[in-house]
Specification:
Blueprint (H helix, E strand, L loop, with lengths): L7 H5 L6 H8 L2 H6 L1 H4 L5 H23 L5 H12 L1 H10 L10 H5 L6 H19 L1 H22 L5 H13 L4 E8 L6 E8 L2 E8 L2 H18 L6
Antiparallel strand pairs: 1-2, 2-3
Helix pairs in contact: 2-9, 5-6, 5-9, 5-10, 7-9, 7-12, 9-10, 11-12
């Protein structure tokens, strides 16, 4: 069910005064194609995504540069990628239920776009652009830091893995002497548009459940959710 737009700023924990711009950020191209005249009244979502992508990368770059003062360019690039990969941004979008606010066309609605990883990552970038335009760099930086900083602490403790699957494996082995396993929960959709649901298990506990249009994508999301769980539950024992 589509949630009321007025509830989103409070859920994000930021003030947004330009509600028309916020609506633009949530308006998918599929809806614009179906409602051409209305779409002309709103800012271009893809332009907002472009701006948001740059802001997400800039804040992550600044944080990595400060947090790892001895890291070289290659290491910093890998660390930044670990923060801003598509799966991570989609995870943040799910945290705020952004898919429930998206304004999409009927075809995309039937295709399950509200939970699609790439769609949610793009949606998050658009929202970041709105916060920047409406409230400025300091506010949007603080907003992004809420999500970046816990992961940076894990990266400090665990070195510089090339991806989140490597990171959760290292964390699990270091903390619990257990190697995580991935388990397919379901495979749905037509052959050309599969949707995989995969859970990651440490010991007997499911720490994350990811979904995507391929097993690797679903595993990456599950791994990221497992990392998020360990960040907020430091005393967890499997």
């Amino acid at each position: 069910m589509l949630r009321p737009l007025s509830a989103l700023p409070q859920q994000l924990g930021v003030t947004i005064t330009d509600i028309a711009l916020l609506r633009s950020a949530l308006m998918h191209q599929s809806y614009r194609y179906e409602h051409g005249e209305e779409a002309l009244l709103h800012a271009d979502t893809q332009r907002l995504e472009f701006l948001g992508d740059a802001i997400v990368a800039m804040v992550a770059t600044q944080l990595i540069y400060t947090a790892f003062p001895t890291a070289n360019e290659g290491t910093m690039t890998r660390l930044r990628s670990a923060l801003i990969r598509t799966e991570n941004l989609a995870t943040i979008a799910r945290h705020y239920d952004l898919g429930d606010y998206a304004i999409i066309g009927k075809g995309e609605e039937h295709a399950g776009a509200r939970q699609r990883t790439t769609f949610l990552a793009d949606l998050f970038e658009s929202i970041v652009a709105v916060i920047y335009i409406d409230q400025g760099l300091t506010v949007v930086t603080d907003f992004l830091m809420r999500h970046y900083e816990p992961h940076v602490e894990i990266l400090r403790a665990s070195g510089t893995p090339t991806d989140v699957r490597s990171l959760i494996q290292e964390l699990s082995q270091q903390r619990f002497n257990i190697t995580p396993i991935y388990r397919i929960v379901s495979v749905t959709g037509p052959e050309h548009q599969r949707e995989f649901v995969v859970e990651i298990v440490v010991g007997t506990h499911v720490l994350g459940c990811g979904q995507g249009n391929s097993q690797p994508t679903a595993r990456i999301q599950a791994a990221q959710l497992a990392i998020d769980f360990l960040v907020v539950n430091p005393l967890f024992k499997p």
